[in-house]
Design a protein that fits this description.
It comes from Galeopterus variegatus. Pfam families: VIT. This is Inter-alpha-trypsin inhibitor heavy chain H5. This protein has about 325 residues and is mainly β. The chain is built from five helices and 19 strands. The chain has an eight-stranded mixed beta sheet with strand order 7-6-10-4-3-13-16-15, with no helix packed on it. Strands 11-12-17-14 form a four-stranded antiparallel beta sheet, with no helix packed on it. The longest helix is centred in the middle third of the chain and has 14 residues, at about 120-130. The radius of gyration is 22 Å and the shape is globular. The N and C termini lie far apart (about 45 Å). The structure holds 2-acetamido-2-deoxy-beta-D-glucopyranose (3 copies). One 2-acetamido-2-deoxy-beta-D-glucopyranose binds near residues 123, 124 and 127.
């Protein structure tokens, strides 16, 4: 689904490759190493709208993830300011709601089918991203808005995604790239799987281009401040880094992908069937089947473009 918004706002959904490195906050380059300085600098540079809250809440029920991103911004400058909100969402996800509250005005996004808007072009771009990023295809959601002087804006973006099982795991990825340090930053994921959660792990923050990503002491575990609570069928993961913890990971607010991987129990070989509103889902992934024989075909390109070292190799 693609979303269009008229009114005074320009809204683009385009399949950008991961352009998050292009920091639009001038503060990132000038910041010293220590946090108090950073904060003082931020106070002085208060012309840039300040993000006071960035919170992502996901609820996964039977491998189906509902996610809402809510972002609060404050323009403390004495003139109106334009800001761009951007969020990377999984390419397989579809947007179900986008709402902006600017001052006391509510702007409700209109959702239209993806193919209605330059279907071909969008599809083409989509392929490219998926190819460029391998299995981690993402799309960039962007919205630009004008926040009146001394006023606030709240952006709410909801999307849904059916998680795919790959290499024996379901993976839920949340992009945490608010582009600045945020006073209240939370990622809150609840997972409910009736057949039972077999294994659950939170990976270190992942940034495809390593720039700005943390090289902390323990690079293998969950990022700092992560709390995991789980029992047989329910898990709650909360990532809530303080400003200091965020600054240790990345000064520019580009923390990376927060990744949760888990699998469910599959005791019965016939799989798991769910019925709801006249629809059913059959999860079927039998274990212990003999591997199928495979034919492997190697194709060697010996055309002119391969001449020289490539061909010798
Ligand atoms: C979209 O979200 C807004 C704010 O949460 C809510 O008021 C509105 O009803 C939602 N719209 C739809 C179509 O769900
Ligand atoms: C994109 O993928 C679709 C479906 O797999 C395919 O039909 C189309 O040709 C692809 N486009 C490009 C530019 O690769
Ligand atoms: C797991 O925890 C959730 C929330 O705390 C609770 O509702 C549920 O009953 C618990 N389930 C089991 C099997 O303990």
């Amino acid at each position: 689904m693609l979303l269009l918004l008229g009114l005074c706002l320009a809204l683009l959904l385009c399949a950008g490759s991961q352009e998050e490195e292009r920091s639009w906050s001038d503060t990132s380059e000038q910041v010293g190493l220590r946090v108090p300085r950073q904060l003082r600098l931020l106070q002085r540079l208060k012309t840039k709208p300040l993000m006071t809250e960035f919170s992502v809440k996901s609820t996964i029920i039977s491998r189906y993830a509902f996610t809402t991103v809510s972002c609060r911004m404050l323009n403390r400058a004495s003139e109106d300011q334009e800001v761009e909100f951007q969020m990377q969402i999984p390419a397989a996800a579809f947007i179900t709601n986008f709402t902006m509250l600017i001052g006391d005005q509510v702007y409700q996004g209109e959702i239209i089918g993806r193919e209605k808007k330059n279907g071909d072009r969008v599809k083409e771009k989509r392929n490219q991203t998926t190819e460029n990023n391998g299995e981690k295809g993402t799309e960039m959601f962007r919205a630009s808005l004008v926040i009146p002087s001394k006023d606030k804006a709240v952006l709410l973006l909801s999307y849904e995604e059916l998680l795919q099982r790959r290499l024996g795991k379901y993976e839920h990825i949340v992009s945490v790239r608010p582009q600045q340090l945020v006073g209240r930053l939370t990622v809150d994921v609840s997972i409910l799987e009736k057949s039972g959660i077999a294994s659950l792990e939170v990976l270190p923050l992942h940034n495809s281009r390593q720039k700005g990503s943390g090289r902390g002491e323990d690079d293998s575990g969950p990022p700092p401040s992560t709390v995991i609570n789980q029992n047989e069928t329910f898990a709650k993961v909360i990532f809530k880094p303080s400003v200091v913890q965020q600054a240790k990971i990345a000064q520019n607010g580009i923390l990376g992908d927060f990744i949760i991987r888990y699998d469910v129990n599959r005791e019965q070989s016939i799989g798991d069937i769910q019925v709801l509103d006249g629809y059913f889902v059959h999860y079927f992934a039998p274990k212990g089947l003999p591997p199928l024989p495979k034919n492997v075909v190697f194709v060697l390109d010996s055309s002119a473009s391969m001449v020289g070292t490539k061909l010798r190799q």
